[in-house]
Amino acid sequence: MKHVMMSILTALGLGTSSCARQESVTSVDANHFENAIHANSVQLIDVRSANEYAEGHIAHAANIDALQNDFLAKAQRSLSKKKPAYVYCRSGKRSMMAANKLAKAGYKVINLRGGILEWMDAGKPVNR
Hints:
Elements: H1 2-11, H2 17-23, E1 25-28, H3 30-39, E2 43-46, H4 50-55, E3 62-63, H5 71-78, E4 85-88, H6 93-104, E5 109-112, H7 115-121
Parallel strand pairs: 1-5, 2-3, 2-4, 4-5
């Protein structure tokens, strides 16, 4: 009976560690993201390539490329698990991938849903 109940909970997504991991990642729009990063001293990470970062990034963002094999190792060397990590990329896809890796490693992560494209569409400032 216990195995049947676990199977049902797993099928519903309630009995797996991925459920806990998803709770560690929150995606927000540009306005919420901006308010959060200006209200607090935060860990802000641009997960795009160094070239993309150089073309324009949110002020005070560190650059850790999510597509590099050492992404998680670099992130763990520079980020604290005691406060949330705010991540973004170009459109939100890479940053969600990075957010899930970070969440699996024990971080609470806030993802900019539409990436820097949404940020710029909303008229937010970009450092070049």
